[in-house]
Design brief:
Blueprint lengths: L13 H17 L3 H11 L4 H12 L3 H11 L8 H15 L8 H13 L5 E2 L6 E4 L3 E9 L2 E6 L13 E2 L2 H4 L5 E5 L7 H13 L2
Length: about 210
């Protein structure tokens, strides 16, 4: 079994596998491969991405996800479809998040990443363009360099029963049905204490 020390820094986002499966089944389900759909959209479809999505749904009876993905790829988007491409982008996303004045926040990010990895081999770290979510079954925490001097460490605590400390700031996520419901503001690694670790473990356990 892989250990946290031997694992790569980042994991493939769950959405990549979903798209790969969709691409593999597209021909059998719709009669066209992804390349054939893209060629047809460019030749016969509307010119803008939004209109193409609606056209694919209305004229060709495709589902929302399929129409969205095909329209995106006809625009040259969707470069993260393969695991290899995603992992390259993941490293770039993190570098861009902690560039310039936010570079000094990277030690906070790395320390939080270490805490997350230490919870278990089932933790996945899957960077996006502006945040780095931590997954178990679902997203249970996320790391976001919100300002040039602060990282927000978010937790999914929807199902937590009990009193929450003032340090946990309500994000309004529960009302919006977002996974992340609370956050802690961190401006230095010294603030990553036992309380931070305990709430991360709580969010992890809630997603068992």
């Amino acid at each position: 079994m892989a250990t946290a020390k031997s694992r790569p820094l980042y994991d493939v986002h769950p959405g990549v596998a979903m798209v790969e499966k969709w691409v593999g089944e597209l021909k059998s389900k719709t009669g066209r491969t992804l390349e054939e759909w893209i060629a047809m959209v460019k030749k016969e479809g509307p010119k803008d991405e939004k209109s193409r999505r609606e056209w694919l749904k209305a004229k060709h009876k495709l589902g929302t996800n399929s129409a969205w993905w095909i329209a995106e790829r006809a625009e040259g988007k969707g470069e993260d479809d393969s695991p290899e491409a995603y992992l390259k982008s993941a490293a770039r996303y993190v570098d861009e998040q902690y560039a310039g004045q936010k570079e000094k926040l990277r030690p906070i990010f790395l320390e939080l990443l270490k805490l997350g990895r230490a919870l278990g081999d089932d933790v996945k770290v899957c960077p996006c363009k502006t945040i780095v979510p931590l997954y178990r079954q679902h997203v249970f925490a996320q790391i976001k360099p919100t300002t040039n001097s602060r990282v927000d460490f978010g937790f999914a605590l929807t199902h937590y029963q009990g009193k929450l400390p003032k340090r946990l700031i309500d994000t309004g996520g529960a009302a919006k049905k977002d996974r992340i419901t609370h956050r802690m503001e961190l401006t230095s690694t010294a603030q990553i204490d036992e309380e931070v670790n305990n709430w991360l473990k709580t969010a992890y356990d809630l997603d068992a």
